[in-house]
Amino acid sequence: MTDTSFDTLCAQANHLVDPMYGDVVPAVHISTTFARNEQGELPGGLRYSRYGNPTVLQAEALIAKLDGAKEARLFGSGLAAAAALIGTLRNGDHVVAPRIMYHGAQDLIRKVASEHGAEATFFNQANPQALAKALRPNTAMVWIESPINPTWDIIDIAAAAEAAHSVNACLCLDASVTPAVTTRALDLGVDIVFQSATKYLNGHSDVLAGCLSTNMLDDRWAEIVNDRNLTGGVLGAMEAWLLIRGLRTLPLRYRAASANALAIARHFEHHAVVERVLYPGLESHPGHAIARGQMIDGFSGMLSLLVRGDTEFARAVTRNLRIFLGAASLGGVESLAEHRASVEGPNSVVPGNLIRFSVGIEAAADLIHDIEQALRKTEAELRS
């Protein structure tokens, strides 16, 4: 990153002022093809939007600068980006990932490993030594999250990088919950940063997008770029424009959501109906010290409550929320809640009494009151 602060880069969208008209809002280029001049040349170097579009390139340049990366590539969805990366696994490769993680990416790892003749090992993300013990001489890729979705366990990213690189494996980090506003993943040793740009980067629940960023312009990266070009997995121009718009407020949104989540976590930490609050911003969290070192500007708006009750009690609490919307996804300005085990399906290993919250930027007092009333209402329903 340059000497310009993260906040300024975001607010000014990498200073993308139109040189002809002086537009302070970046333009959207919706053309799919680009004309050659009389000399048969492409004035802007672009020929077809599957290979490159001015708006998409602007968004990629901004994300690369924010991530401190040499290059970034945008895809039509988070899982499209993950598929391009995980798809570089080859016959005989070994991939390591957490036992609990974003279930979509885990399902994809299992599928690709099986189809490509690779093997996958899923380690206990709550055990600090488990990742290193899972490595083998043929480990080609290590995929981590920190914090882990939805239990919010913390993995020491720098230690994971050292372990992965000891066997020449590529370390990939899902930073959807921890964008560069708070975690400088590449500086900590990550090789490729994956993000569902649908989440915090956009932050308004109106863009489906994925992103990969790296400083490793090697054969793996060339394969990823070529795969996107050949399969047409590129992001659309309007989505890229909306993503730029969302990025302009990323620091403000992230800090507000983090502050709200911390207030909620502290309020319910010793609540009679809550067994445990899972949030790395709490001093009582076992990974708090590591999180504080690698999350420099907020612990995110993501937290989970383990309620004192069974699966049905947790489901009922989720249904009784009124401000929190019962919807999937995360990182938007609006607060969401879901019974995670139900969302993940019958193979989920997430505790049945876990409710995952994506805390938005509403008033913290209103959000706390909403959870309180849902807990009270659910208890009353069970007594009646």
List the topology elements:
Blueprint: H1 6-11, H2 54-67, E1 71-75, H3 78-86, E2 94-98, H4 103-116, E3 119-123, H5 130-134, E4 139-145, H6 157-166, E5 170-174, E6 192-196, E7 210-214, H7 219-231, H8 237-247, H9 250-268, E8 274-278, H10 288-294, E9 302-307, H11 311-320, E10 336-339, H12 340-344, E11 354-358, H13 364-383
Parallel strand pairs: 2-3, 2-4, 4-5, 5-6
Antiparallel strand pairs: 1-7, 6-7, 8-9, 9-11, 10-11
Mean pLDDT: 96
Distance between the amino and carboxyl termini: 59 Å
CATH homology superfamily of the largest domain = Type I PLP-dependent aspartate aminotransferase-like (Major domain)
The CATH architecture designation of the largest domain is 3-Layer(aba) Sandwich
Uncertain stretches: none
Largest sheet: spatial strand order:
1-7-6-5-4-2-3
The computed structural class is alpha/beta
Number of domains: 2
What is the helix/strand order?
A: HHEHEHEHEHEEEHHHEHEHEHEH
Question: Quick one: biggest sheet?
Answer: 7 strands, mixed
The rounded Rg comes to 21 Å
β-sheet strand percentage: 5-15%
Count of DSSP helices? 13
